[in-house]
Amino acid sequence: MDMTGARLSWSLVLCWITLIMATETAAKPSLRSIMYFTGQHPIAPPIDQLAQVTHVAIAFMSPGVFNDPARSEWPLFTTVDQVRAQFRSGTKIMVAIGGWGDTHGFSAAALTEETRKTFAKNVAKMVRATGADGVDVDWEYPGGNGEDYKEVPNSAKAWEIDAYPLLLDELRAALGPEKVMSAAVPGLRRDMLAFTPETIPKIMRNLDFLNVMTYDMMNRRDTVTKHHTGVQLSLEAVDTYIANGASPQDVNLGFAFYTKYFKTDHEACSKAASPVGCPTLLLEDPQNGADLGRGGGFSWHDGIPENVAESFSKALSQGVYDDREGGYYYLDTKEDIWWTFDTSEAVKQKFPLIVEKRRLGGVFAWGLGEDAPAFQHLAALNEGLVEYSSGRKDEL
């Protein structure tokens, strides 16, 4: 073969390789998309609506079960195999450990080197027994500010800040490098006690990605109205993790497939310059941190509570999008209720305003079944993923 023929053959090979890579790229999402599959709403749509989903986190398994060295059973509301069958081939199925108020098991596990090793070995045994592809660590508030922060002061939990990355060290060592390992982490700066410039590098050496909970950012500890999953608050959250040492590609933006509402102070809000930032009623018991019942929320799959049904109907039809802070809202001045949630359009807005702006590596949602039966927010999330992924390819 002469040199001209050799060059032509090599060119054909390169074209073939390029074609294969392009085909594979087109078939795979460019961004991570993680869906929490919850015991409250264990529902998935038809598989053709799940093409963009890369990971599923089954929520939850309690951390306390891993502290017994003799443990051999792993209680979960479903099985990994049952969940895997509902998603496309290749989707990573993980087990989420913990949750909002389930922290005692983590504290006990993190206490000493011995307890950390026991916990990690049991998690690895669970992953092998269930066939999971990894775990999502939902110790959401190490160091304090969790559900019991009024009863157990943050000072009593300060030791957890250094112990948290040590526990992750043991988990990674037990799981090995091939298993997926992630963590759900706070979205509010006031709660990021264990996520500092000193600890984030230690945390990220073990994790494949962070699920930043950019929702519930208005909750019963607040005293004025704001967007519970707003754009500006979300930017503050991801910017803090990035500034403290996390790579943008390792950060996933959180989406809430549910509504939130809070009772407002009628007289004070009537005088406020804007519905955003107007005073609420006292939402939390100042003595024990208990919910005073002046707020709530429900998923799109839930029945609408009768006491707020009429107000919610108005929120759907009369709500507006706040272009400044970034969030859909409605202030019912008759019932004195502040509504804050994402519409489908608000979901799509977050791709140019947050994901693209900060070049994040993925998104996640709590939770998949919460968006049933219409799965309109999932559709909006998928649309945003496809459009953004196409834009990224165009730039290459």
From TrEMBL:
Gene Ontology BP, a term: carbohydrate metabolic process
Domain GH18: from-to ranges: 31-388
Keywords linked to the UniProt accession: Hydrolase, Signal
GO molecular function terms noted in the UniProt entry: chitin binding; endochitinase activity
Signal peptide limits: 1-22
Keyword Chloroplast set for record: no
GO cellular-component term (any): extracellular region
Enzyme category, top tier: hydrolase
Domain of life (superkingdom): Eukaryota
EC number: 3.2.1.14
InterPro entries from the UniProt entry: Chitinase_II/V-like_cat, GH, Glyco_hydro18_cat, Glycosyl_Hydrlase_18
SMART domains referenced in this protein's UniProt entry, alphabetically: Glyco_18
Protein name: chitinase
